[in-house]
Fold each of these.
Amino acid sequence: MTSPELELDGLRRRYGTVTALDGLTFGVPAGQVFGFLGPNGAGKTTTMRAIFGVAALDAGEIRWRSRPVGEAARRTFGYMPEERGLYPAMELFDQVEYFALLHGMDAPAAASAAKHWIDRLGLSGREGTRIDALSHGNQQRAQLAVALVHDPELLVLDEPFSGLDPGGIDDMSSILRERAAAGVTVLFSSHQLDLVEDICEAVAIIHHGRLVVSGPVAELRRGDRPRLAVRVSGDTAAAWAAGLGETSGTVDAVRADGTAEISITSSADSQAILDRARAAGTVEHFAYEDRSLSEVFRRATGASVGQAEAEHAAASMASGVTTGARR
Ligand SMILES: Nc1ncnc2c1ncn2[C@@H]1O[C@H](COP(=O)(O)OP(=O)(O)OP(=O)(O)O)[C@@H](O)[C@H]1O
């Protein structure tokens, strides 16, 4: 893996009796789309706010290209905060151009960049619309335009997909990929793990303010112990798999159709497992399969992903924010 461009090192933050960050450490490699995951309250927003100096740290250091992050570096970063920081009464074009000027661009460059990103985000024709007259999804697009307008080297987005329709999700995904391909380091949080699985090269999963797992998505899905999925015709309880331990296989779960999900040690003899299944009946399915990112998350945090998503949806409804559901 490439060496990290953004390093979060031993971050600690308490709010009264609540420990938001408890020694959080991980790195984000250059030019990747990197997913930042964790259950509600894990510390993701606090971390992102700390990168921008909006949340103070009790301890720890954030480094960009091996140097502690300061205001000069932050001017080269783009941020899409969870609370969305646009001026409701300002017109779209003025808003985007204003942020470009704030980041030090001269007037012609700011106007041209504002036009470029408004067009790229499918908002052309709405340049004179007030922010508060835009739909929720279009406000998200406007917020992304603001984060991108000064061509940042690091892009940090707090739940950028929440509330977007399928077209908005596709546009957001392709822009994040495109920016990463152009060398930008992209860090974003999301609870939509199937989406994260599709677009991220690597992820960090945090829980209670600490890192629990990080690495390339493909490696995490493969895991230390490969998974075999095996189904024997008519055996919906996968009774054939009883006693598999002798072959170094462990049945993790049995699906409704009788497919046994078997974790095996690398030294396990998959042929011995196949022989055992064939001895019990017709083998309808026998294949190595990667785990889903949802399962990796569930195992890492000890939480049901369904529960995490439900909690997030409830929290979003309470705050009046719509949660985007991908399926
Ligand atoms: N300003 C604050 N004052 C008091 N407590 C706070 C503050 N900000 C965050 N916390 C607490 O710190 C913990 C981490 O919160 P944070 O918002 O960083 O989590 P998160 O991972 O972004 O959660 P979510 O997925 O729900 O957005 C939570 O327990 C939260 O209540």
Amino acid sequence: MTLKIEQVRKQFQQHVAVDGISATIEKGDIFGLLGANGAGKTTTFRMILGLLDPTEGSVTWEGTRLSYKRTHLIGYLPEERGLYPKLTVKEQLTYLGRLKGMTKPAIIKELKHWLERFQVPEYEHKKVEELSKGNQQKIQFIAAVIHKPELLILDEPFSGLDPVNSDMLKDAVHDLQQAGTTIVFSSHQMNNVEEMCEDIIMMKRGKAILQGSLREIKRSYDMKRIAIRTDRDVSFLQTEPGVTSYNETKQDIVIEVENERVAEQVFHQVTAGGFVSKFEVEEPRLHDIFIDKVGGEADA
Ligand SMILES: Nc1ncnc2c1ncn2[C@@H]1O[C@H](COP(=O)(O)OP(=O)(O)OP(=O)(O)O)[C@@H](O)[C@H]1O
């Protein structure tokens, strides 16, 4: 089961929201879609789901176009949460499960399983409006997965969740992946993306500015962070060409350098003067790559 996005473009009047995105996502992958606010992530999701027609290009699942009619194949956690506040959790999920073609006993069985798993079995008979935002999010997640979709699209699944709930959701997503579900998700929280994805696309103003395996991206990225531990004074590094930042933490001096060549140079300078107990070149964090590539400002 392959999800294929080919040269997809979406134009709203004069505005190009998505501009020539391509990606191949294999069965059982967890694929990350990153970008600042307004970069085009939700628009891309809507095209994958068949809720929006691309202006150009195509999205196919096993060679055929996805449409919301093939709804049993797809699970979607939208960014704008869409639960009915006055319905109980059971009523809500029964309604949504029926739309996905499930029988009532199957819905109840799955619902109980998920509520147990999320440690909130007592929510079955609570109205959605009585639940906190984070807990509503868990219910919305259950709504996206209750019918065991083959393709799961999660738009900002971790927003608003505390660390415990966030971990619970991550475990659930991992288990679904193990069971063969193909998962595409967006997140502004780079640590979540680092933990979960093998492949990513980073979007800016509708275009892919970085794409591929996260490991390769990090390996090839020039920006390097170095942690140094020594009793010697290395403050001369502050004005060293190629050193882009210098910070003294409690134990280490942490600097950032432009590339590997500068890292080598710094190594020779620092070690020439005597004993250094630590000199560690770390991979760049996705957070730093994001800031470097996308910048601080939103795209909208
Ligand atoms: N129906 C629409 N009509 C006109 N413009 C739209 C429409 N939908 C989205 N846009 C524009 O397309 C751009 C991309 O929006 P999109 O919602 O895909 O971004 P996003 O990456 O999901 O952002 P966020 O992280 O804030 O959710 C934005 O500039 C937005 O204003």
